[in-house]
Design brief:
The complex is a heterodimer of chains A (245) and B (111). Chain A is mainly alpha-helical and 245 residues long. Chain A has eleven helices and no strands. Chain A starts with 6 loop residues before the first helix and ends with a helix. The chains are: A mainly alpha (245), B mainly alpha (111).
């Protein structure tokens, strides 16, 4: 069996090309395609060379992977330089590339934050039931647990570009309700929440305003990424086609 | 600058014997010339080549896709050293040949 058809080589090639696709995302399509083609050619040539040199597929693949790993800082530095050029090239590129990935980061961070808040609130309530012996606020507990699961699901969906519009849409519900139900749940078990409710007269209004404000972020992201409303990719493809024509 | 010099020297060396100077071939040639047991990483090599192309030291062209397809491999990006690159290499080689300046530490005497 040749190295090029071996399992280790193919797995390594796939990983290196996946990394290459990741760090070239959102860049100028020509620059990104050239880098990907160049790395693909390099991987192939290294496989052929290893074959001729009598190197085993496992050793050749390990060397290729290490070679790619050593270049990670340079890959990221190159990406950073390309993004700087892209930003200078115009508003449209900045919005589809850099701002797009920035928005994805915000949505993932928001999803993780909602999940963390939910988990902490549920754990705190369950501990209070066990240690202090208060009655379990079942409805609030179920609401917070459900919102936490929704947040986690939304976070996972938001990671992949193809499903991130679904993730953002799903995140609207937890961001709008998690604060309300968390306060309701902790009201029974947390002295801090009770003190807050006493000190801040307009706590309910504040929670509503903050919830609406937070929910606007996934609403905006959903509209931005929703396929039927999103023609930026078509325009990009068109531009690329024109350049190659 | 050392990598840039190595790249320019390797491209010229490959060109002089009629070989194509493409990414992997350059990494292999540089490793042979410098006695290194490892190949220059993808990231370092292609970032340097992109910088050198932008600076006008090298130029590149993709080979004919039909030729690559005939050989059953991805097409190669072939690099050539420009006139500007050749001059820059000569200048750098001359600078490296110059004896290093000896720096004499200045000791202040008390009093």
């Amino acid at each position: 069996m040749t190295i090029l058809r071996s399992h280790p080589y193919r797995t390594t090639s796939r990983r290196v090309l996946a990394w290459c696709a990741w760090y070239t995302r959102g860049l100028d399509p020509d620059a990104a395609a050239m880098r990907r083609d160049e790395v693909a050619s390099d991987l192939h040539e290294e496989g052929v060379w290893a074959e001729e040199a009598g190197i085993s597929p496992a050793v050749a693949s390990r060397r290729m992977l290490l070679r790619a790993l050593r270049g990670v800082p340079a890959d990221l530095a190159w990406r950073s330089g390309e993004l700087r050029q892209t930003r200078g090239a115009g508003f449209s590129w900045a919005m589809t590339g850099h701002a797009g990935s920035g928005l994805a980061f915000v949505i993932v961070a928001l999803g993780l934050a909602c999940s963390l808040v939910g988990v902490l609130a549920v754990v705190r309530a369950l501990l209070a039931v066990e240690t202090v012996g208060i009655l379990l606020p079942r409805a609030e507990l179920i609401a917070v647990a459900t919102l936490t699961i929704l947040s986690l699901l939304a976070t996972v969906l938001s990671i992949h570009p193809r499903s991130r519009y679904l993730g953002a849409a799903l995140l609207i519900v937890p961001t709008a309700w998690i604060m309300h139900f968390t306060l309701q749940l902790l009201w029974y078990s947390s002295a801090t929440v009770q003190a807050l409710a006493v000190r801040i007269e307009s706590l309910s209004l504040l929670v509503v305003l903050m919830s609406v404000g937070l929910a606007l972020i996934p609403i905006g992201a959903t509209l931005w990424w929703w396929p039927a409303l999103n023609h930026r990719d078509d325009k990009t493809a068109q531009q690329t086609g024109e350049r190659h024509a | 600058m050392a990598l840039e010099v190595n790249i320019l020297e390797s491209v010229l060396a490959l060109q002089s014997v009629g070989d194509q100077a493409y990414g992997f071939m350059l990494a292999k040639h540089i490793a042979g010339a410098t006695g290194s047991s490892t190949l220059t990483s993808h990231g370092t090599l292609y970032k340097a080549l992109a910088r050198m192309a932008a600076g006008g030291l090298v130029e590149s062209a993709w080979e004919d896709p039909a030729a690559a397809e005939l050989d059953g491999r991805p097409r190669r990006r072939i690099y050539r050293v420009t006139a500007e690159g050749a001059v820059a290499l000569q200048r750098e080689q001359a600078r490296l040949m110059e004896p290093a300046e000896v720096v004499v530490p200045q000791v202040r005497t008390a009093g």
